[in-house]
Amino acid sequence: MFLLFAKLFRFRIRKHRNVIAFFHPYCNAGGGGERVLWCAINAMQKKFGEKYRYVVYSGDVDVTPQKILQKAKDCFDIEVIDNNLQFIYLRTRPWLESSNYPYLTLLLQNLAGLLVGVEALFRYNPHVFIDTMGYPFTLPLFRLLLTLISVQYFFFPFKYRIG
């Protein structure tokens, strides 16, 4: 445990400036959350141009960046410029699958999200961290331990009963 905190402290010092990172392990899925991700990157690229570099933490290890961006273009008609975009591939993404946890599924998936977040941190330490998937334990990991600017996008579907 001490070694983990020692490494975290070291990474705290080696922060990459002018880098905005998006934590989205399923960035190639083609759903509504992915639309939010690609719209956000597209809007930032249009507003800030080359001022920032962008990183996407992806668990789609078998898909090239070109194919991911082409799917975003085909599904959402969103064109993302790739000259200031980098993909960091996360090998621990299979831990997030609900099929791994027949009991206490949400709790264990959220804890797995923390571990995948630790891998993301060790692979690349950005200046700004945006979690567009909504894993609740990644925000304290990046914000409190590393004092990064951290943002989290939450999408909660609600079930209403009328009548």
TrEMBL record:
Residues 18-157 form the ALG11 mannosyltransferase N-terminal domain. GO terms for cellular component: endoplasmic reticulum membrane. Keywords: Endoplasmic reticulum, Membrane, Transferase, Transmembrane, Transmembrane helix. Belongs to the glycosyltransferase group 1 family. Glycosyltransferase 4 subfamily. The keyword Cell membrane does not apply. The keyword Transmembrane helix applies. Pfam families: ALG11_N. It comes from the Eukaryota. One of its GO terms (molecular function) is GDP-Man:Man(3)GlcNAc(2)-PP-Dol alpha-1,2-mannosyltransferase activity. It comes from Brugia pahangi. The chain crosses the membrane at residues 101-122, 134-156. This is ALG11_N domain-containing protein. It is found in: Endoplasmic reticulum membrane. Its main location: endoplasmic reticulum. One of its GO terms (biological process) is protein N-linked glycosylation.
